[in-house]
Design goal:
Strand order of the largest sheet of chain A: 3-2-1-4-5-6-7-8
Order of helices and strands of chain A: EHEHEHEHEHEEHEHHHHHHHEEHHEEEEH
Shape of chain A: globular
Distance between the termini of chain A: 62 Å
Oligomer: homodimer
Radius of gyration of chain A: 27 Å
Largest sheet of chain A: 8 strands, mixed
Strand content of chain A: 15-25%
Chain lengths: 501, 501
C-alpha cells in the first residue's frame, strides 16, 4: 500500500452506524475526519463507536498503526466537504435526503474531490443527478462494522469518470479494505441482493413457524456461515460436485431450482403479527444483552475469525495481512529515522502497550505460558525492526534467531489486562545478541514475567551463523552502549534447580 | 457427552461426498462403520476422504480421540443395517432410490435401530412410507464437509416417534455435532431454504453479467461470510438497528422488501448458455486447482475458523470445545487406569505425535519461538492429566503452575512437520515438579528444542503454593522413580551468557 494513497482529510456526511464506522476506520489509519450529522446525539454515539473500534484494533493487529487522525464536527455538509480529498455520504436510505446532501457538499468541494455514497441499494446515476461535477461520484458500499469488515462495493453511474473509481479504490485499499468493482449498475448491487434473498426466505420461515429467529441464525452459523467465511457459494459447490467439477454439480442440483419450494419466489407481507413475532423472538435470542454488549461480542469473534483467515492467507484475512505489511514497511522507515536522529536514551526499550486477548486463555481461563514468550518474542521483533532488520533485510541479508530463552513467571496476566515489555540489551557482538525482557502489567506496573534471550544472526543465503551487516551491528552496538548504564537484572543468568534444604 | 450415547456400530447407505463424510466422522469417534455403496470406485473414493479427514483432525484437535472404529463394506443395504444402532442413508436425491434402500435396510435391522436420511430436501413422511417400523425414521441432514461442520438438521415425519429423534440427537451430539430440531416438516428444511434463496439470486447476477462467480464469492467472503461464521442474520440485523433494537431495524429496512428488485422473486432458467458461462467462470476461479486441492485448502481454513470460534466459545467453536471436553474426561479416566495398572516404564513419557499447523508460522514462514514452548506446555498438561490433575481436580484442589522455563532451540520445525515431545521428571517434592522436555521432529528423529521447567502446586482456594494431594504426589513420585534410571539431560541446569574467547 503506497502511503500516498492515504487521503489527508475526508468529509463524512452522516455519523450513524455506517458513518461512525467510516470515521473509525479513517481516524485509526491516521486520516483527519470532518463529520456532518444534524443529530445532536451524534458526537456521543460516535465516541462510543470509536471506543469500540480502538478496543478492536488493539486486539486486531500488532502492526504499528499511525498516529490517529483528528476528528472535527461540521455545522453543514458544505463545511464537511471543504478541503476534503474524499467525501463519503452515509445518510439514511432516502433518495431525496442523500441527493440534497451530495448536491450541497459538491458545491463546496474542490473539483478533484471524489464523492462516494454508502447506499446499500440506490443507483449512483440517480444519486448524482443534482451534484456539481457528477462525474467524480460513485457508490462505495461498505458493511457493518465498517472498521472491521474489508468489503466495499464500487459502482459508478452513467456519468462516472473511471479515474474517480480508481482513486476511490486506491483510498479504500490504503485503509485496509477490499474494493469490489461492479460490472453493471443495478439496485442492491451484488452483496445486498444475496443477503436480501436470504433474508426474505428467513422471514417466511419465521412467519410459518418452521423455526425461530435464533434457530435460523443457528442454521447459518453452525454450517454454511463457517464455510462462507472461507469460500463463497460457487467455489463451495464446485467442491461438492467432486472431481467432475461445476458441470456435474449443476447437473445434479440444477433441477432443485424447479422444485416446488414456492416460498422462495414470493415476498412475505410484513404484517403487524409477523413483526411482533420477530421482535419477541429477537428479544429472546438477545437474552438481555444490550446492543452494545452484542457489538463487543461480535467484534471479538470477528477479530478471531479474521486472525484465523489471516493465518491461511484467505479472503478478509489476506486483506488484513496486506494492510499490516504496508504499515510495517512505513514504520520500518520511520523507526530508523527516529533511531538515527533521536537523542540517546538510556532507559530500556518499551514495547507498545498491548491488551491480552481472551483468545490467549486456556480452558482453565489462564493465559497459556507460551504467550508470555510470545510477548517477549514480539518485543524482540520490534527491536530488530528498529535496528534495520526489516522485511527487505530478512529476504536479502538474514535474520536473528533465538537459540536460548530463560523464562521466569512472577505473576499472572488475565484476559483484558494491558501489558508492556521492557527490553534491555545485555551484550552483543557481530553475530550475537543477548537480551533481557521484563513483562509489566500496565495497570499496576507489576512484573509478571522476565525472559532472558540469546539470539544469533543467520545469513539468508547460507542459513548459517554469520555476522550482521555493519549498519545493523552499529545500531545494536549503539543501543547496547546506552543500556550499559542500566543495572544488570537480578534474574539474568539464572539456572533451574530444586533447592533442597 | 456421555460416552454411552456413542453407538457401537452404524450402517451407512451411500458413500459419496456426504456418506463418506459420515464414515469419517463416525470412524474417528471410535464407531465401527459398515457401508453399502454399489459404485465399484466407492472404497477408493472413501479412502481419499478418510485421508483428508484424518489429516484435518490431526490439526483440529489435541483432545485424545479414541481408537478409530473399524470400516467394513456391505454387499447389500440389508447387510449394512444388520447389527447397526443407527443407519444413515446418503444416496443421491431421488425419492424412489432412497425409498427402496430404506425399505430394504429396515427389514434387516433390529426394531430399535434408528434410521436417518441425509436428504437435503425430501420430506421424511414420503421417505418412510415403505419402511418397516417407519416410526424410527427421521431426517438427519448434515453439511459438507460432514467431518468438520457440526450442524445436522433433525426433521421427523408424520409417524416419527419422539424417542427416535431423541436417540438420533444424542448420537449426533456424541460425535461432536450440533443437532437442530425443526418445528415443522417442509421441503428444503431450514438451512437449504436459505442457501437456495441466495444461490438463485447468485445465478441471476451471473446471468445478467453483473458479476462473475469469483466476484460473487468475494462479495460474500469479504463481509457477510465473516459475520455469518459468528452470528446469523437476525442477530446481525438486531445490532444494525442500534439501541432501538429489532423493531427499529424492521421499520428502517422493511420497506426494502417491496423495492422493485424483481430478480429476487423469480427463478432463472438454466439455459445452456447460462450453464456454459458458470462452468467457464468457475474454471477461471479454480485457477487450475483440483477439487482435491480445493478440499484441502477449504478444510485448513475451516479448521482455522473453528479454532477462532472455539477461542470465543461461539457457535461451531463451542460445539467443538464441548466434544473435546467429553474426550478429555473419557481419557482422564482411561489414562489413570493405565498408569495404575500398566507395568513400570523407564523411558520418558511420549506425547502424541502432532502436526505443526501453518497457523503457527509467522509472516516470515518460521514457526514462532513461543510455539515450541506451547508444545512443551501441552506435554506438561498431558503429564498432569495422567497423574490425576484433571478438570475436577483443577476446580476442587488446585493445579501446577510453571514458574521457570529454560528453552533451547537446536533446530527448526516447519509447517506440516510432525513432532513429539519426550518428557522426563528430573525431580519432585510435595510442592514442586522439575521436568525436562525434548521436542523431536518425528520424520527424522532430530531434536529441535529442549525445555527445562519448574512447576509449583498452587491450592485452588488460597491461590498459594501448597502440597498436592497425596494421590497425585504418589503418582508423580512413582513416575519420577522410574525416570531416575534415565541419564540426566546434558542441557539441564544451563544458564545464558555470551562466552568470550
Amino acid at each position: 500500500v503506497p502511503v500516498s494513497d492515504l487521503p489527508a482529510r475526508v468529509g463524512l456526511l452522516g455519523g450513524g452506524v455506517i458513518g461512525g464506522g467510516w470515521a473509525a476506520r479513517f481516524l485509526i489509519n491516521g486520516v483527519d475526519v470532518c463529520l456532518f450529522d444534524p443529530d445532536p446525539a451524534a458526537p456521543r454515539k460516535l465516541e462510543a463507536m470509536l471506543a469500540n473500534a480502538r478496543h478492536a484494533y488493539a486486539r486486531l493487529t500488532l502492526a504499528p498503526v499511525p498516529t490517529p487522525g483528528v476528528l472535527s464536527f461540521a455545522a453543514s455538509p458544505e463545511e464537511a466537504a471543504e478541503g476534503a480529498d474524499l467525501v463519503q455520504e452515509s445518510a439514511p436510505e432516502r433518495l431525496e435526503l442523500k441527493r440534497s446532501l451530495l448536491a450541497a457538499a459538491s458545491r463546496a468541494a474542490a473539483a478533484q474531490t471524489v464523492f462516494c455514497s454508502s447506499t446499500s441499494g440506490l443507483r449512483p446515476t440517480a444519486l448524482a443527478s443534482t451534484m456539481t461535477h457528477p462525474e467524480r461520484f460513485l457508490v462505495g458500499h461498505p458493511f457493518n462494522p465498517v472498521y472491521l469488515l474489508p468489503l466495499v462495493e464500487l459502482c459508478g453511474g452513467r456519468e462516472t469518470d473511471p479515474d474517480a473509481v480508481a482513486r476511490a479504490e486506491a483510498t479504500y485499499r490504503a485503509v485496509g479494505m477490499h474494493p469490489l468493482r461492479l460490472r453493471a449498475e443495478i439496485d442492491g448491487f451484488v452483496a445486498d441482493r444475496l443477503l436480501e434473498a436470504l433474508w426474505r426466505e428467513a422471514l417466511w420461515l419465521v412467519r410459518d413457524d418452521v423455526a425461530t429467529v435464533a434457530e435460523i441464525d443457528d442454521a447459518i452459523r453452525y454450517a454454511a456461515g463457517v464455510r462462507w467465511a472461507v469460500m463463497g457459494t460457487f467455489l463451495t459447490y464446485r467442491i461438492a460436485g467432486g472431481e467432475a467439477g461445476m458441470r456435474h454439480f449443476m447437473a445434479q442440483f440444477g433441477p432443485t431450482l424447479q422444485a416446488p419450494w414456492t416460498k422462495l419466489v414470493d415476498v412475505p407481507e410484513l404484517t403487524d403479527e409477523l413483526l411482533e413475532k420477530i421482535v419477541a423472538q429477537s428479544d429472546d435470542q438477545a437474552a438481555g444483552r444490550t446492543v452494545g454488549e452484542l457489538e463487543r461480542e461480535r467484534d471479538e469473534s470477528l477479530i478471531a475469525v479474521l486472525h484465523a483467515l489471516r493465518s491461511r492467507g484467505v479472503g478478509a484475512g489476506a486483506t488484513l495481512a496486506g494492510w499490516e505489511r504496508g504499515l510495517m514497511r512505513a514504520r520500518g522507515d520511520g523507526a530508523l529515522a527516529g533511531a538515527d536522529g533521536a537523542p540517546p536514551d538510556t532507559s530500556p526499550l518499551r514495547s507498545d502497550v498491548r491488551e491480552i486477548p481472551d483468545a490467549w486463555l486456556d480452558y482453565n481461563h489462564h493465559v497459556h505460558e507460551s504467550r508470555y514468550l510470545q510477548l517477549c518474542g514480539d518485543a524482540t521483533d520490534a527491536l530488530l525492526i528498529r535496528v534495520g532488520v526489516d522485511a527487505d533485510y530478512l529476504q536479502a541479508r538474514g535474520s536473528y534467531y533465538t537459540v536460548e530463552t530463560h523464562l521466569s513467571h512472577l505473576g499472572q496476566l488475565r484476559g483484558g489486562d494491558r501489558a508492556q515489555v521492557l527490553t534491555q540489551i545485555l551484550d552483543c557482538d557481530a553475530k550475537r545478541l543477548h537480551l533481557f525482557h521484563t513483562v509489566e502489567r500496565s495497570d499496576d506496573g507489576r512484573v509478571v514475567a522476565t525472559a532472558e534471550q540469546m539470539l544469533v544472526h543467520v545469513d539468508a543465503a547460507t542459513q548459517r551463523v554469520a555476522p550482521a551487516t555493519a549498519a545493523v551491528h552499529a545500531r545494536i552496538a549503539a543501543l547496547a552502549a546506552q543500556h550499559a548504564a542500566l543495572a544488570r537484572p537480578e534474574r539474568a543468568g539464572r539456572r533451574i534447580s530444586v533447592a533442597r534444604p
